[in-house]
User: Fold this.
Amino acid sequence: MDRRLMTKLMTVVTMSAVGLMGLTGCKSSKTSDYDLLVQENEQLRQQLASMDGNSAEAEAIRQQYESVRQRLEAENRDLASALDQMRNQPAAGGSLPSIDGAQVSARGSDVVVTVAGDVLFASGSADLKNDSKSTLNGVANAIKSNYGSNTIRVEGYTDTDPIRRSKWGTNEALSAARALAVETYLVSRGIDADQVYSAAFGPAHQRGSKAQSRRVEIVVLDGNN
Assistant:
């Protein structure tokens, strides 16, 4: 039997198993397909172990083995993609209620409230729009009701366009000012000042478009962090 092929395949099986463990609640059809592939791999492994490694039959089994390996790799990619989608899907009920003007999602065990920068601020400005405050009021009320003791990190983000027509020298400076403006407003609405802090990320972590990239994320950190 080709030990190098065996080692390579078993590595793929291990990687797929790790991905699968992170997908509790994934569709049963996906896990069933994975289980069938693992069973097929085990059957091929036993057949190879019991025959002359140089025979034509062994070569045919090796080809089947390679096919299973490729299918397991594809399955692993699908599992990783599904896991990524689960991490970014809207947070489960009981985390935070829906908030007008904001998107609530999960980032691991943290809860993330995303508000578009264009909702909060005019272009190049770090002054909150008056009509954005109802959204932040909803955020503050939801946090006070559901996460009164958790640490809150307000993260500011921008797009990648260079700063040209505002007083901010860099995107990092603009994102810092915007995050601080949101932090200050949340404190004015009853969030404990010792509970919240701000962080600036500038053009890091871009989204699908420039408008989506300009945002403030209000992250409710897991109580164990």
